[in-house]
């Protein structure tokens, strides 16, 4: 495998590892009130996008933007709100040191996608996927009995992100245009929130240099992995990306257990085993299908 063919794999691994290790980053921002994290992240992301566009323009690269219909803008507005709710749940779980809940949420995302594909897009489900969904459903029900799990966190991570993926599928805008619309929508709400709570700005004067650098870095943390993932997605087969998507929640689980010292009761442990079994069934099914081609 030459260097050029290996680059998409490195890009994908970088994206998933960054998303997985982001828990440590958000947990390090303990000086910042949790309700301020989203506005900081959105506005910092907008700044990064503006810098990227300026850099591309200065390098002579032409940006082509076609008019976007109002219904598509509204669709992506809903998508932006959904991804914001996903961000809030993930940032909050990381902020309070609950890596296990974050990992469970992202482990569940593919199964939300299967559910949407079956009921809305009328995509057929084979027996393996049906069995995997049943295992996952039972795992979620077991979590209700766990006293160590904040149940709403994985659900609020998984369901909005699964629906967000569906919106991206039917919206069919290119990556840059879709990202720009979503960031502008969230920036509008963030600016409104900053106008309501001016301490978001005034607090930055009181924060130390480390905290302010972390705040500014949230934009890079949000945008750069998206660009490297977009590069990987356009240069790799879906089957290759399929198994790599579990790098992020596996990393989050390890961080939760090793760094945040989260504990697992019997219900959570069994749920994780069942979800992993469901994931392994899906991966094996996909790989066998690829080998038969």
Class inferred from helices and paired strands: mainly alpha
Q: What's the total count of β strands?
A: 0
Report the biggest beta sheet as strand number plus sense, adding barrel if it closes: none
Count of helical stretches? 12
- Could you state the order of secondary-structure elements as H and E? HHHHHHHHHHHH
The proportion of residues in beta strands is under 5%
Summarize the amount of helix as a percent range: over 70%
Report the end-to-end length measured between terminal Cα atoms. Answer: 21 Å
The domain count comes to 1
- Cα radius of gyration in angstroms: 20 Å
Task: Give a written overview of the molecule.
The protein is mostly helical and 293 residues long. It has one domain (3-23, 38-292). 80% of the residues lie in helices and 0% in strands. It has 12 helices and no strands. Helix 1 crosses helix 3 (70-95) and helix 2 packs across helix 9 (209-235). The protein is globular, with a radius of gyration of 20 Å. The two termini are 21 Å apart. The mean pLDDT is 90.
